[in-house]
Amino acid sequence: MSAEMLEIIKKRRSIRKFTEEEVSDQNLDEILKAGLLAPSSKNKKPVEFIVVKDRETIKKLKDCKSMGTIGLDTAPVVIAVIADSETSDVWVEDASIAATMMQLVAENLSLGSVWIQMRCRQSTNGDSEAAVREVLNIPEKYGVSCLLAIGHKAEERAPYKDEDADFNRVHKETY
Ligand SMILES: Cc1cc2nc3c(=O)[nH]c(=O)nc-3n(C[C@H](O)[C@H](O)[C@H](O)COP(=O)(O)O)c2cc1C
């Protein structure tokens, strides 16, 4: 991996406050390209994306989950990362890889992003995934991995340092 790539990985932090500036269509396309070109098991490409800019819809998405949705308050764009669970038995992994690659491209464009988990989460009205499906009219067979809140950063977060990489979590040859 080039030093440049590692710098982007270190700079990427979860950003939950965004300015009012819109994300350009060109930047949005680059982020989506990263998701569309992400690897998938057996190359089945089960992952799809729903781009949401409408503030009323974003408010409804916030109501789909009880906690951890601050990033939706100011995000000018939200991308729902969904995947066809009938096409792939490992759609969760496929969707996670796509979302992560999109966050790295966002950082490379100096944009902020945060992953907002929907799978296995609840709102006061029940299952978050089901609620997102209803708000965005997503067919039942699609799993909802996460919502990516994306925008221009309105908060600064320190990049990771090399020392933050805890090599105690690395085992050699056996555990
Ligand atoms: C699977 C997953 C689920 C997450 N869910 C949420 C969430 O629902 N809301 C949120 O604000 N951040 C969420 N995050 C962001 C984490 O809180 C964040 O990555 C972690 O605290 C480390 O901070 P960093 O992203 O700045 O390195 C999630 C991250 C991952 C990978």
TrEMBL record:
<feature type="domain" description="Nitroreductase">
    <location>
        <begin position="9"/>
        <end position="152"/>
    </location>
</feature>
<keyword id="KW-0560">Oxidoreductase</keyword>
<dbReference type="InterPro" id="IPR000415">
    <property type="entry name" value="Nitroreductase-like"/>
</dbReference>
<dbReference type="Pfam" id="PF00881">
    <property type="entry name" value="Nitroreductase"/>
</dbReference>
<protein>
    <submittedName>
        <fullName>Nitroreductase family protein</fullName>
    </submittedName>
</protein>
<dbReference type="InterPro" id="IPR029479">
    <property type="entry name" value="Nitroreductase"/>
</dbReference>
<comment type="similarity">
    <text>Belongs to the nitroreductase family.</text>
</comment>
